[in-house]
Amino acid sequence: MDKVKVGVVGCGAISARYLNNMTKSFPFCLDVVACADIFPEKAKSRAEEFNIPRFYNVDEIISDPEIEIIVDLTNPPAHYDINTAALEVGKHVYTEKPLAVTRDEGRDTMDKAKSKGLLVGGAPDTILGAGIQTCRKLLDDGWIGTPITAHAFIAMGVMIDRYHKIGYGPMFDMGPYFIASLVSLLGPVKRVTGSAQFPFTEKTFQDPLSPEYGKSFPVETPTNVSGILDFVNGCVATITTTCDIFGYNPRLEIYGTEGILIANDPNMFSGPISVRRKNGDQREMPLTHGYKDECRGLGVADMAYAIRTVRKHRLNEDFVYHVFDIMHAIHDSSRDGRHINLVSTCKRPEPFRQGLSINPLDK
After folding, report:
1. Residues 116 and 206 in one domain
2. Does residue 264 share a domain with residue 142?
3. pTM across the whole model
4. Within a 10 A sphere around the Cβ of 348, how many other Cβ atoms?
5. What is the pLDDT of residue 70?
6. What is the predicted pLDDT for the residue at 216?
7. What is the pLDDT of residue 351?
8. Is residue 63 located within the same domain as residue 108?
9. Residue 194 lies in a domain
10. pLDDT value at 305 more than 70
């Protein structure tokens, strides 16, 4: 298969993981030809680090006719402008989470892509990793019977001012890992009920090494957010995301008629998975799928195959928008004091073949 040429916008911390994998793990389908950042020195540094031929400003990379996929690793408030600009000139887009800031921006991004026959995909691609793919097989093989209820939980402490602004917060930052995993495992959601709260109206910088140490900053977005998700298949899940406590505490469990599935941390590509059966048997389950290491960029590789083989990519626009819509619906429900019936929907992404490792994805 001919490689798909990729341009990366945003050369911050997360770009190192993407670029390492796209240039070293997926060179059979991806050719990273350029990177860009609003700070030219960052783009130049990443280009030199990963032997990327060209570094640009944002306008230059979007207008480069050679590039087929723009990978947007910028901050959430920039996603809409960059992604729609790329779509406007005929490029496919893979974006970091969340899709945009507002629902209108997200919907407009999807509509523009569909009107032009272009693909949009997005993080998190951890659901394509060995952990959640193994969980998918366990569910599909009937290990816990019919899923009845599920629980997703991520509680952690974050004292960064940017994290507390509109477009960020624990639901839009960490929520995608858990909601995308639930939708991948259980299918689409039809109704959402939510509570989004502000335990604190301001916080203080707590890193003694920071020049801002001890100063306060305002909290502009809810930091303790919970939702009840009613799935089309009848399962009901709860999700809680908060950044107001200490440590890092993830949990994802699905309860069925015959057993309980305790998944790996959805923020990771793999991790311990266990099943507790009705008869009392409890065991840690072996990983059945590949991509167990840090593989950010796997979703871009899957999109490249979709472009070349004219199939649906797994993290497609319907899936990405549905996850985005669910997160907004949780906040809308809390604000309006009512259930939210979703209009958006999607199909469960096709699972990877069992045992697939770092090699062509469709074999």
Report:
1. no
2. yes
3. 0.96
4. 16
5. 98
6. 94
7. 93
8. yes
9. yes
10. yes
114, 249, 105, 111: which is closest to 166 by C-alpha? 105
CA distances from 272 to 139, 179, 249, 251, 339 (A): 16, 19, 14, 11, 35
CB-based contacts of 106, cutoff 8 Å, min separation 6: 80, 98, 99, 100, 321, 324, 325
Which of these, 50, 20, 63, 33, lies nearest to 298 by C-alpha position?
20
| Cα separation, 256 vs 260, whole angstroms | 6
In a domain, 181, yes or no: yes
Q: Based on the domain organization, do 39 and 144 belong to the same domain?
A: no
Say how many domains are in the chain. 2
CATH number at residue 101: 3.40.50.720
Handedness of CA 179, 21, 160, 58 (dihedral sign): negative
Model confidence over 151-182: pLDDT tens digits? 999 999 998 999 999 999 999 999 999 999 99
Model confidence over 187-235: pLDDT tens digits? 999 999 999 999 999 999 888 888 888 899 999 999 999 999 999 999 9
Lookup: tokens for 295: 């593989």
Rounded CA-CA distance 10/73 in Å is 5
Range of the domain at 17: 4-122
Q: How confident is the model at residue 1 (pLDDT cuts 50, 70, 90)?
A: confident
Domain boundary among 261, 284, 307: 284
More confident residue, 46 or 211: 46
Are residues 151 and 259 both part of a single domain?
yes
CA 119-74-48 angle, to 5 degrees, is 100
Final residue of a structural domain among 248, 263, 284 = 284
For residue 148, the domain's CATH number is 3.30.360.10
Are 14 and 35 contacting, i.e. CB atoms less than 8 angstroms apart? no
Residue 314 has pLDDT above 70, yes or no: yes
